Amino acid sequence: MRMWNRIRNSFAGVGAALLALAMPAAAEARTARPAMWKVADADTSIYLFGTVHLLPPNYQWRTRTFDRAANEAGTLVVETIVDETNPALFAALLARMSITPGLPPILDRVKPSKRAALQATIAKSRIPQAALDRMETWAAAFALLQLQFAELGVSGGDGVESGLKKAFASAGKPVEQLETNAEQLSFFDTLPEGAQRELLEGAIEQPAKVKKQFDSMLKAWVSGDVEAIGRTFNSEFKDSPELRDALLRRRNANWARWLESRMAKPGTVLVAVGAGHLAGSDSVIAMLKKRGLKVRRVQ
Q1: What whole-number distance in Å separates Cα of residue 20 and Cα of residue 127?
Q2: Dihedral, CA atoms, 55, 60, 63, 66, nearest 10 degrees?
Q3: pTM, whole model, 2 decimals?
Q4: Domain range annotation of the chain
Q5: Structure confidence by residue, pLDDT tens digits, 244-258
């Protein structure tokens, strides 16, 4: 199961806050040209830019086309905004939603064949097993994912949204969100336990397998290959309809409705969301077209 794809590109806004990632060493600069679309009428323009929330360092993803769009935009809209100046606020929210008394021990929440791998991951993470026992399964999966992120050498500080939010704030432009932190977390909190356990098993995948999945995903994003993005980001949902509905389809539908209503307000907006949400048959792009909006790819 491609745990990396699901978590990182659907919920890394809160994931970055959940995972205290170390900054990796500097690497050779890489150039990317991610996909971008435009929806426009006589007095409104909305640019839709597919992002990767957590990146290796030194990826140059800003292009002239992107910079023109960003300069033109009066507002940036991202998936969610974590208040980095008040981390206790987010921590309290997470505790309320994820800590539940009387849960089965964390080792009992995976198949017997997976327990040794889970035990090894817990030991390596240095998270007390007693703390994980008190967490709902989705939250325990998030906590253990930090090892996968650290081993891949990626950071929220190097991700697309982090730089964009700083740039817009410095320019005195507002930054808005499509979902609150509570709304994002609720998509996990309301998953059936079986689906949460799938996520937990994905958090203990072998590093070589995770790296292969990540490299494939990053290659598709760098080249702006939307078909490949649809395959690498979303194809794994075919075996998990509950996850697909909760993490992808419902959220995309909500965003498509928001975008359609935003077209009634004049101005230019840059919307930056995980690239997986803009690719495939259930994408925001596909839903906007079904609603009769003209969507044009500009990069």
Answers
A1: 12
A2: 30
A3: 0.87
A4: 3-18+30-297
A5: 888 889 999 999 999
